[in-house]
Specification:
By secondary structure, the protein is an alpha/beta fold. It folds into 3 domains: 163 residues, P-loop containing nucleotide triphosphate hydrolases (Rossmann fold); 66 residues, no CATH class; 83 residues, Winged helix-like DNA-binding domain superfamily/Winged helix DNA-binding domain (Arc Repressor Mutant, subunit A). Helix 6 links the parallel strand 5 and strand 6. The two termini are 20 Å apart.
Length: 407
């Protein structure tokens, strides 16, 4: 039994053993691949732990099997700090795909009589791309357009199109104070290619703030994208995510109906939490079985405490005491896990605090918490937690978790 590997994989971007509940999103992406010419690109947003990166990896598989090249990676602060850095990031990602393609064959006249001409093959590697980029006159956008257009002339007989896909794209922002506009550059070159009917498809994933950032960069960006906002899985999809991986032959672990319902309840359909609770449950049951325990003792409270340490504690430790007080007030709102306003927070503080928050302080604090990645402001002017079920964590931090048996 101890040779059977736990199939569940909690972790950032780790593919689950069964991708449940994302069929519509995959179908939507496949429709985008069929565009001729390309008119729409794709944005995938959602809270952390909702499965954006996992879905992106699944879309990569679909694109490659459909005859497309797929280039991209996680965006970093260094890659997005300037137009040139972003251009180099794109060239680097593309060069790994096309380095085997021949750029040109050139006959050089040899020195001396009786010698045959030499044939030199130039490969489309990074050095070639960067040399072309630097040699092209104009702005960074002009240089990148020229290189991307040339790449297509070389590869178009071999592929259907090229997907440029970037995760954590919410960090990609224009910086007017530094006269750097990397996001605007990216949107400009993609629109340029698509107007010329060159099939580059842009896929961006990130936190919900990404949509606002795109709108601020270019007023026409809304017309460039279809937006998928990933939500929690429903009860049926959550149950599939739990059961399908353990229905394999020779799996020594089973979950009772009560245990399944407890995982559904405490995960609230967030894929990361589903994987976390299932992995911990599986490990605990298997180890107890291996030492001869006939009825394994597994408690949900133990796993909730472990999740609090693994997932929430580091984020909670980075806020000040006064910010924590504000977050505690937010967590007491009936809509804390959905949306809330600065006015609602201020009013709630009047009910629960001896020293309530002034409205101006609430707005200022929310802006700081947004910069820290704990809060985001949506397009309707309301706020939400950027971390799933953070309100539940805050509320139970000062409460005793009910010590229910899981199985």
């Amino acid at each position: 039994m101890d040779a059977f590997l736990n199939p569940f994989r909690p972790g950032a971007g780790y593919p689950p053993p069964h991708l449940a509940g994302r069929e519509k999103e995959i179908e939507q992406f496949l429709r985008l691949l069929q565009q001729k010419p390309i008119l729409k690109n794709l944005v995938i947003t959602g809270l952390r732990g909702v499965g954006k990166t996992v879905l992106l990896e699944e879309l990569k598989t679909k694109a490659i099997s459909s005859g497309w090249f797929w280039a991209g990676t996680d965006l970093s602060e260094s890659a997005s700090i300037s137009e040139q850095n972003l251009s180099i990031r794109i060239l680097t990602d593309l060069s790994t795909l096309i380095s085997s393609f021949t750029f040109v064959e050139e006959d050089k006249a040899p020195i001396g009589f009786g010698k045959k001409p030499e044939t030199v093959e130039h490969k489309l590697n990074y050095s070639t791309l960067y040399t072309m980029y630097v040699a092209t006159p104009g702005l960074e956008a002009d240089k990148l357009k020229a290189v991307l257009e040339f790449i297509w002339t070389i590869v178009k007989s071999r592929v259907t199109g090229i997907v440029l896909a970037y995760d954590e794209a919410q960090i990609l922002k224009d910086r007017a104070e530094d006269r750097q506009f990397p996001l605007s550059l990216l949107l400009e070159i993609i629109q340029f290619m698509q107007r010329k009917e060159i099939p580059y498809l842009l896929v961006l994933t990130g936190l919900p703030t990404l949509v606002n950032t795109l709108s601020e960069a270019r007023t026409y960006s809304e017309r460039m994208f279809e937006i998928i906002t990933l939500k929690q899985l429903g009860e049926r999809e959550t149950k599939d995510a739990i059961l399908v991986p353990i229905q394999k032959e020779k799996c020594p672990v089973t979950f009772t109906p009560y245990g399944i319902n407890e995982i559904i309840k405490h995960s609230s359909g967030y894929p990361y939490f589903i994987q976390f609770y299932c992995k911990e449950t599986f490990d605990s049951i298997l180890q107890q079985i291996n030492v001869g325990v006939e009825k394994p003792d597994v408690r949900i409270a133990d796993f909730v405490r472990k999740l609090d340490v693994d997932f929430y504690a580091a984020r909670w430790s980075r806020v000040t005491d006064r910010q924590r007080e504000l977050l505690v007030v937010i967590a007491k709102l009936a809509t804390a896990n959905d949306e809330f306003t600065a006015k609602e927070i201020s009013q709630k503080s009047n009910e629960v605090l001896d020293n309530p928050f002034a409205p101006a302080y609430v707005v200022n604090s929310l802006n700081k918490l947004t910069a820290q990645g704990l809060i985001f402001k949506n397009r309707r002017g309301k706020y939400s937690f950027a971390v799933p079920l953070l309100a539940d964590y805050i509320n139970r931090s000062n409460e005793e978790i009910e010590d229910d048996f899981l199985l």
